[in-house]
Amino acid sequence: MTELIDLVLLAMLALTALKIIFLKDLFAVVMLFGIYSFLSALIFINLDAVDVAFTEASVGAGISSVLMLGTLALTGRTEKENKRSSLLPLLVVTVTGAALIYGTLDMPPFGAANNPVHEHVAPRYIEESPKEVGLPNMVTSVLASYRGFDTLGETVVVFAAAIGVLALLGVRREKTDNVRQSGFTDHYVLRIIAKLVIPLIILFALYVQFHGDFGPGGGFQAGVIAAAAFILYALVYGLPSAFRVVGPKFLQGLASFGVLLYASVGLYSMFKGGQFLDYNKLAVDPLAGQHYGIIIIELGVGITVFAVMLSIYYAFASQTERGNT
Amino acid sequence: MNFIFDYYNYWVVVFLMMAGFYIVISANNLVKKIVGLNIFQTSVFILYISMGKVSGGTAPILVEGVTQYSNPLPHVLILTAIVVGVATTAVGLSLIVRIKRAYGTVEENEFENTDDAI
Amino acid sequence: MLEQHLVALPIILPLIAAPIALLFGRTILTWAFATLISAGACFAAFSLLIAALSEGVLSYAVGGWPPPWGIELRVDAANAFVLFAVTALSTLVLLYSKASASHEIDPDKQALFYTAHLLCLAGLSGILVTGDAFNLFVFLEISSLATYTLVSLASDKRCLTAAFRYLIMGTIGATFILIGVGLLYMKTGTLNMLDLSARIAALEASRTVNTGLAFIMVGVSIKLALFPLHMWLPGAYTYAPSAVSAFLASTATKVAVYVMIRFIFTIFGAEHVFAEMGMDFILMVLAVVAIFKCSYVACVQSNVKTVLAHSSLAQIGYMVLGISLVSVTGLMAGLIHIFNHALMKGALFMAVGAVFYRLGSVNIEAFRGLGKRMPLTMAAFTIAGLSIIGVPLTVGFVSKWYLITGALEQNNWLIAGLVLAGSLLAVVYIGRVLEAAYFKEFPASHDSKDVKEVPLSMLIPMWVLVIANIYFGIDTSFTTEAATSAAQWLFQNNQVLELTP
Question: C100, CA 20 to 30 Å: which among A39, C131, C164, C197?
């Protein structure tokens, strides 16, 4: 059954990708990309990667599509005709694809339980992590503890993206005395629904943040969801109102704070005589130490991701609002 | 038949990757290039997740009575890679916004000076 | 306590410092802080190099998890040597940036500039020190994102398209590396480099592993701008702010060369890559083509930064040529050239940045008569230029000497001759700039009062590099010892090494 669903989803992905190649309407391209992303999230669920599916849906499909649409608003929505030969790209792609197909012929079969990836390294994560780290969600254990250094790096990548976007675009603040009426001022239904939904979204973000140890979720997804609540607020009530709730400067500080919170766990464990990010040293009982460590670093991740995603949205949206005047 | 059953997943994934790669190197519009890059990367993610799958296994969250779990390590790697991907996308799109403002176009063949061609 | 964590320090110092740097209100504080941190990382890297030369290898298990379950940081003579070069150059460039960046970069964005510089340094150190193939990808992306930001901070609008091209090519390269690492993981089940090497050696010839190798080599070749995948580099180096060009030209591609060395020698084993796959021949041909094609292009450019960028591409050719000789001497020549080229290109780009600081142009026309107007800057350019050519008593000579020795060991007179011929082209492109500076008159139309020597804060780092060019050209004991022991280390059969917890 799994294989059948997999095959259907893969076929849909292939069709979507083909359609994107030939479409000239960029709005449709971005929408199809969102669909592509959601379809891959479905594949991830089907292949047991629930955490990845969650992230792909919120980060890949959600934030990426929003940013792409924001860009289209500034750059125009149709790709112009061009007479470029597509022969060379086709050749490059064919050679690369052929090399990969050649590589697949020796691969361990799909789904077999005795593949090398399942016999080396991973068994410890599956068998020992509930005892060593003490969490039922093995993905969180590996992410936050065994490969915590990767995750620190990943948080820094997010931070670096914020630096890049701020350096390139900056957040344009309009002076408070000539704030235009922006947002959907006349759509009362929208405004009331938004007011009802935003607290629920934030509540859900908190749930995802702190439930990541037991089920799918964690700092990345929670940060994005929380940012989505504020993005909705900014859309409906206008950017200036959103700036009054959380200002861009405050978000910059928050982004730094999240990374530093993460790193401080590492420094504290060094201070306690362990290696960098050795959570066992955080408390007398190693399991408790692991637990504290993971909660704090996930919080750091969540804070940085929230602050960065919202900052990036602000940067793009403030360009658009200016573009409209 | 068995042969096809073992590898069909990887073959489709290779096709998807190459579709994305093709969009990146052939598209004339910069936004479309970024979309292509995302498709390319997302397809690589499917490659990773495919190798973590164990037939008959379940999601790697400890449940009483389950002995066969899928491999959590590729999931962790791809969580990281997704976030890296969105970071690159954000910076790339910001560059496009600036390019539009500086040159008035985001079509590759419209940059007049060859130094500016992408 | 610090000695125990020495291996981690060059990464975590700039990594933690970057978000702190963003919080300072004033640019001058951010600058001072970034420089201090970079100097600290440089000091740690130097201590690491000393330790690695005496003890062999230092391993650090992040999070206390033993490899291959956790992420291992691993330092030996090879990466400590490159790490020292990278951190030292970063510190000098930061000193230089104070005047240069405040002149070229929007005041509002200078704090972001220093933050991005620290992130880039953290990424490069991470790539060098990590012993985990996937962790390498993460740090690669940190340094890449920071680099795109740094390139795009210039005021010339062409930096935007250059940065975008760099972003597209860089991300394709990184994705290829990701595919390659995935294929290796699929066959071995591990990501730790040493563990990978042991398990790949145990496998019989596998198409999947060979495809993985090919993808990693292509991805890394994009990152190190090996001909014909180099098209992103000239634009990025030409239009980036001067301080950024100096930093990137002397560090970023070198780190990618190191990654190539690491994958070839530590993970796959030289035997497999060269004897079975025949990659030495491919690399040798590409390297020779790069040396001649790019040196030739450098001879006909009018923008001096573009000249230097193409010269960098040719110098990368020399490094790859050293690797492709498959001998301890060849590899050692490649490694020593990583260090030496950082010294030369750093000085050259700093000198060109100084000209830009005074004249607002880096066209060869702008250099007319500068020999008298900016004597110290042009003297620095001259000495570093002679070093690029490979004149005795400079580090350039040392690199070429070992490269030719390596070629002659194998009776490869052709390669030895080609290396010498390549130097002649360098005479042409450096000579054109020197001719303008010393044998042409300063144009009368310029307002001559403003064209004088640049501030000391720019001259001192430039001259530190120039003196290093001469010092390490005369007293070669430090660099040759480090490079030789690194090359020998890489050539040892790594498979016999057990994982050290």
Answer: C164
